[in-house]
Amino acid sequence: MKIFTIANQKGGVGKTSFATHFAFYLIEKGMKGVFIDLDTQVNASYTLEKSFPSSKYAHSLFQDNFSIDNSDEKLTLFLGSNELAEIYSNSSVNEVTKVFYNSIQILKQKGFDFCIIDTAPSLNSSLVAALFSSDYVLSPIEPEKYALQGIEKMINLISNIRKQNNKLIFLGMLISKINRRDPRHIKHYNQLMEKYPGFVLPQAIGLRSSIAEAVDIGIPVWNIKKSAARVASKEIKTVIECILEKTK
Ligand SMILES: Nc1ncnc2c1ncn2[C@@H]1O[C@H](COP(=O)(O)OP(=O)(O)OP(=O)(O)O)[C@@H](O)[C@H]1O
Ligand SMILES: [Mg+2]
After folding, report:
1. In what order do the strands lie in the sheet with 56-57?
2. What does the alpha-carbon distance between residue 149 and residue 163 come to, in Å, rounded to a whole number?
3. What is the CATH classification number for the domain harbouring 203?
4. Confidence band for 149, pLDDT divided at 50, 70 and 90
């Protein structure tokens, strides 16, 4: 089971839109997986629940006695909920991390091909737990100044976690919601490429309302039959194929 965390403490940069599409894609390729929504906003749960109804909750992965039966479902969805907020406030980072890591080891024994973890826009202990338990981390980023300012913190966190989890691979930054006709976006894109050569995925995802529409109705953008959705689909699929190539 390959474990991917999608993380950036900056909000609204496209984490959930990418994470949900990644899951749809892998399932369509015949894989079986787990999706963990670690965000009290429950956006990913909303999008995926329509195709993959669930009564499992992500907060159960932070409890000592976690167990799970074998499942034939294509996607086992661990829903986000408000209970996640209590976990962060009631226990130390080390405790939270240890318990979550143990739950992931249990999931690993159940024959899943992948696990995608969508995280909240904050530096909380569940993010540390997710990174500590993952093989790969991807950071979507918007080409806006505030987002650029935040990425440094994210990179520092990843390199600190790597001191304890040396198998964690940073797949890089995924530029999302870029308007290639906007000189400000192009300027910020170029700044990122200059400052972090090798850490920015060569493929980017444009500012495309069909992506927002798809996650709203709970389907992948490639199932929207509009010509505008075709470009968005191609962009997302190219990014996913690039990631799969890197993680073979
Ligand atoms: N490529 C895109 N083009 C246009 N809109 C997008 C794109 N990607 C995401 N959106 C929209 O932007 C908003 C934020 O996206 P999303 O929820 O994926 O970001 P996020 O990083 O998960 O946010 P949060 O940090 O709040 O969890 C959503 O309304 C979504 O529909
Ligand atoms: Mg989100």
Report:
1. 56-57, 75-79, 33-37, 114-118, 2-6, 136-141, 169-175
2. 23
3. 3.40.50.300
4. confident
Range(s) of the domain holding residue 222: 2-246
Cβ-based neighbour number of residue 200 at 10 Å: 19
Confidence band for 71, pLDDT divided at 50, 70 and 90: confident
Q: How far apart are CA 9 and CA 38, in angstroms?
A: 13
pLDDT of residue 89: 73
The reply to whether ligand 1 has any atom less than 6 angstroms from the CB of 218 is no
Protein residue whose Cα sits closest to atom 15 of ligand 1 = 14
Joined together, the tokens standing for residue 19 give: 């994470």
Residues 176-190, mean pLDDT to the nearest whole number? 96
Query: Position 62: which residue type?
Result: F
Q: How far apart are CA 178 and CA 181, in angstroms?
A: 9
Which stretches of 7-60 are assigned E, i.e. beta strand? 33-37, 56-57
> Could you identify the atom of ligand 1 that is nearest to the CA of residue 43?
17
Ligand 1 atom nearest 215 alpha carbon: 31
Calpha distance 119→5 (Å, rounded): 7
Tell me what pLDDT residue 117 has: 98
Q: Residues 45, 48, 53, 56: is their CA dihedral positive or negative? A: negative
Domains held by the chain: number: 1
| C-alpha 130 – ligand 1 centre gap (Å) | 20
In angstroms, the CA 159 to CA 155 distance is 6
Q: Is 13 in the pocket of ligand 1 (CB under 6 A)?
A: yes
Task: Output helix, strand, coil percentages for the chain, rounded to the nearest 5.
Answer: 50, 15, 35
